[in-house]
């Protein structure tokens, strides 16, 4: 039998911790192994409970969530970190990426289904970002793209169709699935199918890889 994903929550609001606890208890493949209100308690609990995934806010009493992410990566490098925060500005997102978090979801509009998907994804060592966060990341990379590495698996031997190239460009410009659907007058499902085809052709692991590739290859109008 597959072991459940062990999760530790870190948030300085009890009501948020309680709500997430109730939500996570509904998932058969997840196990809440603790919750903490701040940096100090979180570090202590991680050493005691050995979680697979830490879900943390960025705004904590005392040391910040960014400080916590850095410390976790220093002391417990195998632990995966998912940020769940109301802060969605470029500065916050850039700093959490730099610190070592593998996922980022906005508190404002994250559904239970997407939270579970993010946890399952990053528990396997793959990054996960909501569409809105991926748009912000695309802007960040557009400003520093010459320094950003392209995934090793990318091969230029693949050829994109004209529609795939168009959709790739729109993703790199920060559009969501819904916005691309409306612009091109096609269904969201069709947009997602084209996106999946692009990702399979180049072995991209995330939307971030896709966006970085588009920017590096001058496919975006930035």
Give the helix/strand layout.
Blueprint: E1 5-10, H1 14-24, E2 30-36, H2 39-49, E3 53-56, H3 65-75, E4 80-85, H4 90-99, E5 103-106, H5 112-122, E6 128-129, H6 131-144, H7 162-172, H8 177-184, H9 188-202, H10 207-216
Parallel strand pairs: 1-2, 1-3, 3-4, 4-5, 5-6
Task: Please provide a written account of the structure.
This protein is of the alpha/beta class and 222 residues long. The protein has two domains: 5-129, Response regulator (Rossmann fold); 147-216, Orthogonal Bundle (Arc Repressor Mutant, subunit A). The chain contains ten helices and six strands, in the order E-H-E-H-E-H-E-H-E-H-E-H-H-H-H-H. It has a six-stranded parallel sheet with strand order 2-1-3-4-5-6, sandwiched between helices. Helix 5 links the parallel strand 5 and strand 6 (128-129).
Task: Write a brief caption for the model.
With 222 residues, this protein is of the alpha/beta class. Helix content is 50%, strand content 13%. It is elongated and about 55 Å long.
